[in-house]
Amino acid sequence: MGFQKDFKWGVATAAYQIEGAFQEDGKGLNIWDVFCREKGRTFDGHTGEIACDHYHRFREDVALMKELGIKAYRFSISWSRLLPTGTGKLNPAGVKFYNELIDALLDAGIEPFVTLYHWDLPYDLYKKGGWLNPESVNWFAEYTKNVAELYSDRVSNFFTFNEPQCFIGNACLRGFHAPGVHGMVRDTFEMAHNVLKAHGTAVKVLREYAKSDVKVGYAPTCNMSYPDSDKPEDIEAARMTLFEVKETEDWAWNVAWWSDPVMLGSYPEEGLKKYREYLPEITKDDMKLINQPLDFYGQNIYNGVRVRMGSDGKPEVVKRYEGFPKTSLNWPVTPECLYWGPRFLYERYKKPIYITENGTSCHDDISLDGKVHDPNRIDFLNRYLRELKKCAEDGTDIRGYFLWSLLDNFEWHTGYAERFGIVYVDYPSQRRIIKDSGYWYRQTIQENGENL
Ligand code: IFM
Hints:
Elements: E1 8-12, H1 15-18, H2 31-36, H3 54-67, E2 72-76, H4 79-82, H5 92-107, E3 111-117, H6 123-127, H7 136-151, E4 157-162, H8 164-173, H9 185-209, E5 215-219, E6 224-227, H10 232-243, H11 256-264, H12 269-274, H13 284-290, E7 297-300, E8 304-309, E9 315-317, H14 337-349, E10 353-358, H15 375-393, E11 398-404, E12 423-426, E13 431-434, H16 436-446
Parallel strand pairs: 1-2, 1-11, 2-3, 3-4, 4-5, 6-8, 7-10, 10-11
Antiparallel strand pairs: 8-9, 12-13
Helix pairs in contact: 3-5, 7-9, 8-9, 9-13, 14-15
């Protein structure tokens, strides 16, 4: 019982959040490079220009992972490091960087899991309309083909998109992520449809051009829902809430709109009705393309809402009590989401599951003894992983868990104000210090979660 024998205990990062070297060795600009330079966009004007300097320090970071006993590393490729203008000519230094990173991982016995896109669209493609341009499907296919040809001899696991909810919703509907546009609602639905078509095309391209038997998945996000009690009606209320579609102003923060087409081949009926006036043309061929068979389903899970069935037969969200536990980002601490989330997703999509991100931001600093003590993070991880273990024991096929994150890093519009790592980064010196939670995670990996 417990976690599967070959459970992938991993950590996750993203290119823009750690690499730095934003204009080095031929890399092209991406939308985050440009966005961060604008006044008032990020906390205190922070940028990812240096970030964790991982571009130069990746060997040290791989050594840290090895020391921690990490089995799998999920990282993203910077599209504009590989293809500076998004299409066309490859950047040899970019190609070399990921070659060396992958080789270093394999030498350290760590399995690479590549995310193709974690939000850093090449700026030149943004100028051509970005995801609103139907050509974006072909741009992404070209980039994916390059990745497959370059790295699939050594990388077997790929995720297409990380959190489309954010790079469309936060970025183009609500406007606080790059490119920082309060777009017209109709545009955002059109972008979303192009992203989903790009996903389907990329899956096909990976399978066609890969040099080994690759496994492909997807890594969306959202709040999960969990029931207020074990009563069947409360469980049903939580399930219904998880897959319902939201009001138009916040439509992108949703599970079903982004995952049903990919996993089931259709948009949710409720959304097709609710959003009718905003939708682009959606053809049968589009849906066939989007619905490519996947090997696993990834989901980033951080928190959830408690739900019960109301007396009117409709689900209702239970208000949190005053003083409810929260992280330093003010996100609620709700370990139950790592039981019910994967369970509901497995029931609906019937694919093995990876938790592609989970973790917490804490107010970490270096203590007088020179160490970084982060008991809140250990407690958070312990509570969440216990729920995940229970979920696995109750029959959900969970293949792995990627802790967010290996390193403290650039947390988008909140800059370096938030620390998510199990390894502390002292930004002025770029010194890394393994936090107590890093050692705790090592122990958990060694025991395959029996210590939880
Ligand atoms: O840092 C982000 C990551 O890039 C996407 N998922 C959530 C993390 C924490 O906010």
